[in-house]
Amino acid sequence: MSEPQQSSTPQPSSWLVVGAGGMLGRDLLDVLAGTPGVRALGLTRAQLDITDPQAVLAAVTGHDVVVNAAAWTDVDGAETAEAEAAAVNGTGARHLAAACAATGARLLQVSTDYVFRGDGDSPYPESAPTGPVGAYGRSKLLGEQAVTELLPERGYIVRTAWLYGEHGRNFVATMLTLAAQRDTLDVVDDQRGQPTWARALAQQLRDLGLAALDGAAPAGIYHGTASGDTTWFGLARAAYELAGLDPERIRPTTSAAFVRPAQRPAYSVLGHDRWVEAGLKPLPHWRDSLAEALRRPGFAALTGSPGPG
Fold first, then answer.
1. Is residue 61 part of a domain?
2. For residue range 106-123, what is the model confidence (pLDDT) as tens digits?
3. Domain CATH for 21
4. pTM of the predicted model, to two decimals?
5. Closest residue by Cα to residue 114 from 135, 143, 86, 98
6. C-alpha angle 229-76-255 in degrees, rounded to nearest 5
7. Is residue 183 part of a domain?
8. At 7, is the pLDDT very low, low, confident or very high (cuts 50, 70, 90)?
9. Is residue 212 assigned to a domain?
10. Is 136 a catalytic site residue?
11. Are 167 and 22 in contact (CB under 8 A)?
12. Can you give the residue range of the structural domain that contains 23?
């Protein structure tokens, strides 16, 4: 795990991680546990209903930094349950922002590339106009708007995409699991994005929160995705190659072969210019992070490698 990018020892601070049972939340708690001066509390969905404003205010009180890693993440399900998705991703984020405004806490709101149309051909800057085409993206944009409105000086929106990690279901884990079940796999090669390791994003969120407490990071929108870009096909081949499997077992196909209820962005590459303003480096290249991720125990178990140590 990387050390915080700040050179000085951080002042003691209390952090609340909402959505602590998820892939990102679990990595974030682990990262924070190893950070000097940080005391972190994690609350799962069962422990905190973010659609309950009184419960949210009680949970936020006493904390310096709140990270909202809780979300309705069923992209396809949101198409027929948009009100439910909006209640979590929009109204829930609004309650957290209101509680932080009332208590003086800083809020790190995790958002998504789905707030864009996904039809671009160059990296979306943080200031690019939004225009979600699906219910999930619309619900997450509601959360962004709430944070911008209620916390203009202490709200931090961090958009991520193509997230994978040791905890929970994700594309990389699925590909490695299927390696033992199928000789070949057809993977979409006409969607481009930035595979982002949840642990690397957790470290970046930690560093952003510390910079915010120091007054070094301006509030607003940041893009928390890996550097570089590839397709799902390219990611699957890289995962096989790094795991010691034959990448030729991965074959390219198009999105037309996998019709889903929700439209997937064809282009999800995000720009990272705002990290300079916070005195922080963007996340590492996606392939470097993937190589490091596959050495972690959770992935090593899937690949049959011994892992670190």
1. yes
2. 999 999 999 999 999 999
3. 3.40.50.720
4. 0.94
5. 135
6. 50
7. no
8. very low
9. yes
10. yes
11. yes
12. 13-170+195-227+269-284
